[in-house]
């Protein structure tokens, strides 16, 4: 591959010693070696070594599970990853032109605003409103009318997760000053999930189905031949959209404000959306703007009654708006509640047991091992006394991670027993033993004794303190996005994830299509489908994270939802598939086989850039030269002026800005985005210099 041109602002390029046609490019300040350049170099070397078999084994011992490659016949391969559903694996075999006109009318549906937090679109008002973020976890502020607004904070490890991170810095005194009832009232938490009722038994489910009959959406489609509804044609897509239009769909918690684009797209599809969320949720403004048909304020406190109260709220919606066609959420922590509501209401949905098994990492591993899929050695840690046994069973290097949760929240690599002890103690304080005291304040495990002395009882458990220790998986990491309809895979794509920043596994960037060897891509996609089906899922979008290791393909985790961050836009831009639309169709009981581009419509790379030094950001206007570049789909700052930022050498690194670019080939896209990162100077002042 020839060297990609050095990127310059405004679309001009400089190559082979020639100058830009007009203007002078600002001279970049001296900067450290690019973290991305180093990471990609490491990935390239690792991929070559994995492919040639030279990579030294770093797992404690070989996996006893059969390899995916040897276990799959040609027939099974076609069933697991059909060519019409997984063009990512077959487009290289195509010759001639591919008609892309059928995707052009949908080009406006790509928001390219994914991940934009509330203070960027500022409740429809000017930037810099009175909203203010806390030091972590969530934030509460006032909009310009003086009304309190609550939002979640993004997961500091993963742009694809946007998971809520509890923070000891929040307290009810601040909330009360703003007229808010409590922290607990506004946030759906793991404590609520732990109090949900058990899933129905098969016999209970059969009796419930007999009593309720077919769901409303199933009645709508029963007289239409399925081959017409699920046809991979423009006409089939139009028919599915007509069936979806006007459906009443209930959404359980909106997630963080960067997910606004989801509900705007749902409005475009003509769905009548009802949001059930905390009384101060940012999403309530969507009702005023006409994006939602109805906002239902819901108090998430009193964990033991949440399910019954939420069920009654759904029934009241039906009395007011007519039949409810589906219940759904694009937020990780809401999935167990959604599954139980759908089951009880007789609406389409995945089984609660499947959702629970996907969210609990040890159960995921157990299910996969039971059906003979590759599984790393692992052991549950429920207390300090389990550390020695876990170390002996799993070996080093290894990772420890919370048993429940999304993406890389709290995942840390450990290379020795001493590191395991230190990391476990810190993880318990930060992730595993956050509690609410009698005043609603978040306190760590170290503070719990004081809480007990003050109240006569320990604080309310907030996050489960169970961790999983498992073998560290070497090799390149990928995301496989899978869509199921009626139990079968109808779409899939694979995206390369660039190396994370260890030991925190902080995400960096990705590219699509994948540049891994085709055989490795096939094995990873096949394993992703096998894992989703082994867990018992039958419908909806799934975000599966995996690695191709020196022992073959392995699954990191299965997320029972559409991936966050750039995932929706990547699939829409590259293959023309809108996972928002497709997930809604399945939730409404409408069978689907999405119209998929036979070869990539665009080749993209996206990158979330971390701080190169610790300090304070002086200005957020350092990206303006690149905003209008024709190959830059978006580039935007993630940190406000005056905010303290941290580099990887000093702790969990801070994401400074994110960008997505397109080029004729993936290789060119990767080189171009590397060039932008190296050219951009982030104005960070060292904290010491400000004293």
From TrEMBL:
It comes from the Eukaryota. The keyword Nucleotide-binding applies. InterPro entries: ATP-dep_AA_Ligase, ATP-grasp, ATP-grasp_RimK-type, BL00235/CARNS1_N. Residues 9-23, 32-45 have a biased composition (Polar residues). This is ATP-grasp domain-containing protein. Coiled coil: none annotated. SUPFAM superfamilies: Glutathione synthetase ATP-binding domain-like. One of its GO terms (molecular function) is ligase activity. Keywords: ATP-binding, Ligase, Nucleotide-binding. Residues 58-76 have a biased composition (Low complexity). Residues 1-76 are annotated as: Disordered. Gene3D superfamilies: 3.40.50.20, ATP-grasp fold, B domain. Residues 365-588 form the ATP-grasp domain.
């Amino acid at each position: 591959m020839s060297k990609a041109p050095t990127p310059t602002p405004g679309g001009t390029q400089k190559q082979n010693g020639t100058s830009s046609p007009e203007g002078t490019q600002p001279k970049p300040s001296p900067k450290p070696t690019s973290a991305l350049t180093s990471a990609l170099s490491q990935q390239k070397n690792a991929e070559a070594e994995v492919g040639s078999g030279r990579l030294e084994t770093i797992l404690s011992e070989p996996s006893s599970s059969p390899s995916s490659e040897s276990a799959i016949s040609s027939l099974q391969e076609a069933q697991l990853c059909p060519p019409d559903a997984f063009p990512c694996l077959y487009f290289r075999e195509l010759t001639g032109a591919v008609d892309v006109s059928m995707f052009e009318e949908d080009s406006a549906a790509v928001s390219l605003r994914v991940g934009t937090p509330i203070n960027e679109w500022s409740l429809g008002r000017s930037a810099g409103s009175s909203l203010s973020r806390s030091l972590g976890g969530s934030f509460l502020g006032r909009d310009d009318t003086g009304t309190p607004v609550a939002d979640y904070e993004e997961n500091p490890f993963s742009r694809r997760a946007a998971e809520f991170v509890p923070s000891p810095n929040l307290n009810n005194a601040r909330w009360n000053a703003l007229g808010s009832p409590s922290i607990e009232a506004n946030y759906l938490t793991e404590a609520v999930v732990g109090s949900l009722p058990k899933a129905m038994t098969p016999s209970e489910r059969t009796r419930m189905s007999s009593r309720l009959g077919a769901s409303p959406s199933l009645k709508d489609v029963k007289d239409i031949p399925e081959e017409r509804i699920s046809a991979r044609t423009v006409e089939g897509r139009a028919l599915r959209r007509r069936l979806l239009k006007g459906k009443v769909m209930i959404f359980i918690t909106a997630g963080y404000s960067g997910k606004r684009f989801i509900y705007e797209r749902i409005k475009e599809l003509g769905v009548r959306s009802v949001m059930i969320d905390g009384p101060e949720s940012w999403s309530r403004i969507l009702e005023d703007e006409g994006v939602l048909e109805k906002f239902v304020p819901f108090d998430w406190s009193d964990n033991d009654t949440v399910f019954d109260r939420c069920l009654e709220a759904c029934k009241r919606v039906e009395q007011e708006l007519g039949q409810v066609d589906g219940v759904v959420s694009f937020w990780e922590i809401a999935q167990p509640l959604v599954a139980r509501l759908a089951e009880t209401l007789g609406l389409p949905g995945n089984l609660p047991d499947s959702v629970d098994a996907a969210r609990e990492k040890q159960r995921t591993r157990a299910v996969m091992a039971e059906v003979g899929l590759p599984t790393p050695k692992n052991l549950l840690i429920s207390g300090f006394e389990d550390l020695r046994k876990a170390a002996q069973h799993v070996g080093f290097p290894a990772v420890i991670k919370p048993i429940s949760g999304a993406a890389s929240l709290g995942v840390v690599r450990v290379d020795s027993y001493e590191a395991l002890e230190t990391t476990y103690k810190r993880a318990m304080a930060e992730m595993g033993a956050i509690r609410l005291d009698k005043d609603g304040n978040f306190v760590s495990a170290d503070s719990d004794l004081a809480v007990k002395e003050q109240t006569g009882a320990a604080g309310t458990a907030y996050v489960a303190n169970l961790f999983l220790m498992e073998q560290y998986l070497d090799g390149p990491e990928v995301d496989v996005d899978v869509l199921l309809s009626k139990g079968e895979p109808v779409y899939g794509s694979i995206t390369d994830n660039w190396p994370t920043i260890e030991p925190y596994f902080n995400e960096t960037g990705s590219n699509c299509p994948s540049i891994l060897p085709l055989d490795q891509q096939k094995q990873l996609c096949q394993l992703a489908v096998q894992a989703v089906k082994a867990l018992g899922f039958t419908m909806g979008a799934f975000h599966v994270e995996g690695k191709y290791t020196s022992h073959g393909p392995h699954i990191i985790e299965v997320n029972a939802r559409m991936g966050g961050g750039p995932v929706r836009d990547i699939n829409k831009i590259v293959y023309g598939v809108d996972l928002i639309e497709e997930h809604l169709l399945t939730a409404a009981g409408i069978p689907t086989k999405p119209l998929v581009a036979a070869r990539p419509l665009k080749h993209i790379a996206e990158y979330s850039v971390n701080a190169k030094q610790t300090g304070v950001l002086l200005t957020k206007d350092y990206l303006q030269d690149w905003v209008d570049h024709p190959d830059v789909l978006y580039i935007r700052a993630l940190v406000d002026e005056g905010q303290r930022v941290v580099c990887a050498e000093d702790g969990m690194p801070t994401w400074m800005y994110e960008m997505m670019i397109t080029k004729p080939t993936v290789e060119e896209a990767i080189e171009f985005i590397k060039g932008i990162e190296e050219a951009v100077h982030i104005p960070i002042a060292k904290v010491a210099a400000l004293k």
